[in-house]
Amino acid sequence: MFTPSVAVALFFVPFALAQDNSLGVQAIEAHFTQSLLVPDLLSSFTPSSLLTVNFAGVGELQPGQALVKEQSAPYPTVKVTPGNSSVTLNGTYTLAMVDAEAPGSKLPEGQTRHWLVNGVKISGNDISNSSAVAVTDYAGPGPAAGSGVHRYVVVLYEQPANFSPPEALSKPGVPVQPFVFSDYVKNSNLGPLVAATYFTVQEGTATVSAVPTSSVISSTLKPAGSSTSKGASGTGSASAPGSSSSNGASTLTVPAAATLFGMLFALVM
Ligand SMILES: *[C@@H]1O[C@H](CO)[C@@H](O)[C@H](O)[C@H]1NC(C)=O
Ligand SMILES: *[C@@H]1O[C@H](CO)[C@@H](O)[C@H](O)[C@H]1NC(C)=O
Ligand SMILES: *[C@@H]1O[C@H](CO)[C@@H](O)[C@H](O)[C@H]1NC(C)=O
Q1: What is the superkingdom listed in this entry's lineage (predicted)?
Q2: What's phi and psi for 79, nearest 5 deg?
C-alpha cells in the first residue's frame, strides 16, 4: 500500500513538524473563529506562535478543552512555540487570562481578569516571570452556576518599549475584576498578539441559552504552503535539514509532502 516515497515522507514528517508549526497556527485561528472568540473578544486573530497551557494533574490542554473548576485552580504552566523558524521571541511580553463568558454573551463591564502579568520573558519555550509584575496573580475560574460554558482565554502580547498601562493596573496585587480587555490592550500599546489558547469551565446546568458553536474539523485546514509557491518552498526546505541529497528526500514532491503533513495533522488532532 505504501510506496517507498510515502515511507520516506513519513520518516521525514517529524523533522518538518519541528520546523514549521503553521498548521498549528491555522488550527488555533479556526478554533478562535468557531468558538466565537473572534469577534466576542478579539476583532481579529493572527498569532505568530502557539501557546500551550498545562495544569498539574490534567496535562497539556487542547484548544477549547473542557475542565472542571478544580482542575484549573492550580497555577498553570505556559509554554510558547514559534509558528515558524523566522519568528523570534526575544522581547518582553504581557500574559493574561480573561473570562470571555459563554459564546455570544458579555458582561456589561467587559471581561473578568483572572491573570495579568507584565514584563514576561521567554526562555526557550518557557515563560519566565523572574522580572515580571503580577498585576493580577493567577486566580482560577469560578463561573456562576447556570451561566453557561465560560471561555477562559490565555493570551500573550508583545509588550513594546512604549507600553503604558493605566494607573489602576500598573502595580501588583490588583484583584480579579471585570475590565474591557480590548481597551486595556489598545490604551496600553500592547501588541501585536503573539499566541493564545483557551479552555472552558461550566458550573451546573446552563439556564441561559447557548449560542451553538461548530467544532473545528482540522482535516479541512489547508496544509502549509499549499497556496503560494513561497510557502511551498518553505515547507520543502523545512524537511531538508539533516538530510543530504543522497538520502532519498529528493524523491519527494512538495505537494505529496504537504498532503501527508495535512493527513498526519488531522490524525494527531
Ligand atoms: C512565519 O510567521 C510569521 C508570523 O506569523 C509570518 O509573517 C511569516 O510569513 C511566516 N514565514 C513563513 C516562511 O511561513
Ligand atoms: C531579537 O532578535 C531579532 C533577530 O535576531 C533582532 O533583530 C532583535 O533586535 C532582537 N530584539 C531584542 C529585543 O533583543
Ligand atoms: C511566577 O510563577 C510562580 C509559579 O511558577 C508564581 O508562584 C509566582 O507568583 C509568579 N510570579 C509572578 C511575578 O508572576
Answers
A1: Eukaryota
A2: -125, 150
CB atoms closer than 10 angstroms to residue 81 = 17
Q: Residue 188 above 70 pLDDT?
A: yes
Superfamily of 41-212 according to CATH: PEBP-like (3.90.280.10)
- Class of residue 249 by CB neighbours under 10 A (exposed 0-12, middle 13-18, buried 19+): buried
In contact, 43 and 220? CB cutoff 8 Å: no
> In this predicted model, what pLDDT tens digit does every residue of 91-143 receive, in sequence order?
999 999 999 999 988 889 999 999 999 999 999 999 999 999 999 999 999 99
How far is ligand 2, taken at its centre, from the CA of residue 195, in Å?
18
Q: How far is Cα 213 from Cα 2, in angstroms, rounded to an integer?
A: 38
Domain boundaries, given as residue ranges, for the chain: 1-35+213-269, 41-212
**Which residue's CA is the closest to the ligand 1 atom numbered 6?**
48
Taking the centre of ligand 2 as the mean of its atom positions, its distance from the CA of residue 90, in whole angstroms, is 6
pLDDT in tens, 16-75: 445 589 999 999 999 999 999 999 999 999 999 999 999 999 999 999 999 999 999 999
